[in-house]
Task: structure prediction
Amino acid sequence: MAFKWLKKKKKDEKTEEKIVEGILDGIKEGDNGETGTDDDYIPEEPEPGSKEKDLSDTPGDLEEGATDDQEGKKLFFGRLKKGLSKTRAVLTTDISGLFAGKTKIDDDFLDDLEELLITSDIGVKASTDLIQIVSKKASKISDPEQLKEILKKELLLHLSNKNLEKTVGKPHVIMVIGVNGTGKTTTIGKLASKATAAGEKVLVVAADTFRAAAIDQLMIWADRAGADIVKHKENSDPAAVAYDGIDAGIARDADIVLIDTAGRLHTKVNLMEELKKIKRALAKKIPEAPHDVLLVLDATTGQNALSQAKTFNDALNVTGIALTKLDGTAKGGVVVSICSTLDIPIKYVGVGENIEDLQPFDSEQFVAALFDD
Result:
């Protein structure tokens, strides 16, 4: 379930136009390395008199007039479906192939199906659960479509987030964390843009004081989104920046405070301790803060994303996940793996470079995009 403020109807369509205007067609997501290119990316100003190129056939384009919720969901489903095309191709094509020369579902069939599910990064736990269900219903399955319907129904159960959206006061403090290259700063920029377009007053906090250009990048995003920003000098104490940020959020009557943090490998204990220090600093000002700890994961890393989620959750009690770069990966099944293994809701999924390519996670949409032609 997404944050409540993201669901609000836009106050003024011109606000969104102002935010989107000037941002490049490609807001580049990061790579998988320790120094992700996304985290170094700064959106450039458009050339005077230039026009945006026609993206009508690409994910991320918003058709003219598509402003209501229903049309918006339809457009995003198209982008999600296109983004999951590689995962869908593996699942649907190979499932159909399993029935070649088969008159019934036997142990060999189930072994092959389990291998297929695991290969799609659905994970061992979820795959084992699915195989048990299929085995019990084997006598009722005679073709690929029947099997797909059973898998879709069971996957929805795995993806159902039981976590209820909590009510918080002002400001709603969100601490954004993750390894390098996942798209943390870009995700913050997109969330800030959506929130200001919905009429919320947003403050972003540049607590990533380690990476070169991190503060400059966030400043540009804040300016484009119409959000305030709190920043210190490079190499300042991140916890001190975060504390000043939440203090400013209260003083400026902000609705939302989004805190950027330095990307770090989840295996580095000392860096994880720094995140804990930031969290403690926030709680000194508002005992319940941060109200949300949003972990940004890169879907292309597959099961490594699950490993990251476990480690960050153990250290910081993650309340939600934003899964980026679902477009163009055959590892889309990692969504199922995360939901079935950890009690952490997927709040957002990203399937492209534009602001509208980051949307609240919808389990029914996701399953349909995985299986439907």
